[in-house]
């Protein structure tokens, strides 16, 4: 029995090497402004480019699924460490919960999991998976992909702890000088849906403050007062 415990302790403290299988190309170039959960911003479209060693056979049959699980690394916070207690935004940043009771990116191994809508797969120039409803930073390393199976994984009546449904959204207004008329509908929707999630820190409420968010190749400036956001300008990012 003692020998078994020694072997068990050795196994649970082993280190494993995980190689990435691909990289994300996302319109979100910075952490600020990314939806806090997948699916909240349907207009957020990304492309997952698989490494060259993964050919079309690796995704054969995946096109028959509507959604996929994407396992990834929170590379934007590597080196920032983690703490056993965190302050979830859904609780206003005022209450602490155990890190494993939250989806904080500041985790022991910085691993993330997102359920994304699979729009299409292309293989003419490497294997690429095009997805929507994304909450991923540009250049996110992907470590695995699996199909979503509803009858096994959908649990609509499950208890969700301190998470009580979808978060409230802000009303969006565009300033007449914002440049909205020069944007495509898809890009304008991405900006509106992203800001509607209220990207501010949960403890922050400064109506006069101008926030800056980088989306695609543009710099977006906006203000938030109560439950309304005013988009001030959308301009090319300064070189």
Plain-language structure description:
The protein is mainly beta and 239 residues long. Among the domains are: 22-74 and 110-153, YaeB-like (Elongation Factor Tu (Ef-tu), domain 3, Beta Barrel), CATH 2.40.30; 171-236, 2-Layer Sandwich (YaeB-like fold), CATH 3.30.2310.20. It has 3 helices and 12 strands; from the N terminus they run αββββββββαβαβββ. The strands form 3 sheets. The protein has a 6-stranded antiparallel barrel with strand order 1-2-7-6-3-8. The longest helix is centred in the last third of the chain and has 12 residues, at 185-196. The chain is globular. It starts with a helix and ends with a strand.
What's the short version?
With 239 residues, the protein is mainly β. The chain contains three helices and twelve strands.
């Amino acid at each position: 029995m003692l020998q078994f415990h020694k072997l068990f302790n050795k196994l649970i403290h082993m280190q494993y090497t995980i190689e990435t299988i691909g990289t994300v190309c996302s319109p979100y170039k910075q952490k600020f402004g990314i939806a806090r959960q997948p699916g909240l911003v349907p207009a957020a479209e990304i492309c997952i480019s698989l490494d060259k060693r993964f050919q079309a056979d690796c995704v054969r049959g995946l096109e028959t699924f509507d959604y996929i699980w994407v396992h990834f690394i929170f590379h934007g916070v590597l080196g920032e460490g983690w703490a056993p207690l965190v302050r979830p935004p859904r609780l206003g940043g005022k209450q602490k919960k155990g890190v494993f009771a939250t989806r904080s990116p500041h985790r022991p191994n910085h691993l993330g999991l997102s359920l994304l809508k699979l729009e299409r797969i292309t293989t003419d120039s490497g294997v690429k998976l095009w997805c929507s409803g994304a909450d991923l930073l540009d250049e996110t390393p992907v470590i695995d992909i699996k199909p979503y199976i509803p009858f096994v994984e959908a649990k609509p009546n499950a208890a969700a702890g301190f998470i009580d449904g979808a978060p409230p959204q802000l009303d969006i207004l565009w300033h007449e000088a914002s440049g909205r008329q020069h944007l495509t509908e898809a890009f304008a929707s991405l900006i509106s849906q992203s800001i509607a999630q209220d990207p501010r820190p949960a403890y922050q409420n400064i109506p006069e403050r101008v926030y800056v968010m980088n989306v695609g190749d543009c710099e977006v400036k906006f203000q938030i007062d109560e439950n309304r956001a005013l988009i001030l300008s959308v301009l090319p990012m300064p070189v």
